[in-house]
Amino acid sequence: xxxxxxxxxxxxxxxxxxxxxxxxxxxxxxxxxxxxxxxxxxxxxxxxxxxxxxxxxxxxxxxxxxxxxxxxxxxxxxxxxxxxxxxxxxxxxxxxxxxxxxxxxxxxxxxxxxxxxxxxxxxxxxxxxxxxxxxxxxxxxxxxxxxxxxxxxxxxxxxxxxxxxxxxxxxxxxxxxxxxxxxxxxxxxxxxxxxxxxxxxxxxxxxxxxxxxxxxxxxxxxxxxxxxxxxxxxxxxxxxxxxxxxxxxxxxxxxxxxxxxxxxxxxxxxxxxxxxxxxxxxxxxxxxxxxxxxxxxxxxxxxxxxxxxxxxxxxxxxxxx
Length: 321
What we know:
Structural class: mainly alpha
Strand content: under 5%
Largest sheet: none
Order of helices and strands: HHHHHHHHHHHH
Number of domains: 1
Shape: globular
């Protein structure tokens, strides 16, 4: 098989994962929330265990009229959903699911690449808020920008701690250097990274930019039909990317207890699935933070913890060497 064909097949695999995994997360969220909150509707759509709920949602969005407000910046308004969604596809290309060539494309500076591209995805919400010509949307966009500024720093520091421990910023390189005793050693960084990622995705309890009881639905208030669905899909794609990155950086990725490297991708998916369940569980279990609480939690909570993890990693590296 030629190298070009091999790369094309890997990229097709990444595209299939990008299309399928977010939908699986969305369907799972319907079911988990139905059980935890007693929502009966999602359990009956289509018959057996509500299997058709996701199909019904898709048909509903496809049937809705695509509306652009008269006062909106039309081009930016229409472009924003794509800016919110496509960066997660690029990040998924760089995440190694298994050993060897089980990755779309290895990137030498993988950590910098994925964090930079994830930050671009957040700009989709900022663009939507600014372009909608709606004061509630503008407030949502400003809150999104404030969250990005606050939570990008602890996320970067936590990822930098793992890179320091492994001696490389390549994601496959980090997994090659992984040892199981890293899990308790890097647990603080894992919590910081995962929590900051939730905030950047605007997932509850960090969903102030879409606070429906205050600003209707924030940056997405004026969106309808498939464009609104793309924003929802970008949220689920972001969950897949966040859980995948947390698995690779802090939980050993494809490393499993039985040493079956050929099934490494199974371990990656299982670990990511457990983290995705945690994301859903947090949504139904905790109330939304106030804007001041959200900012205080980042600057006085997560950033000091990330610095502690960074210092601890430096100390351990010096002692080991």
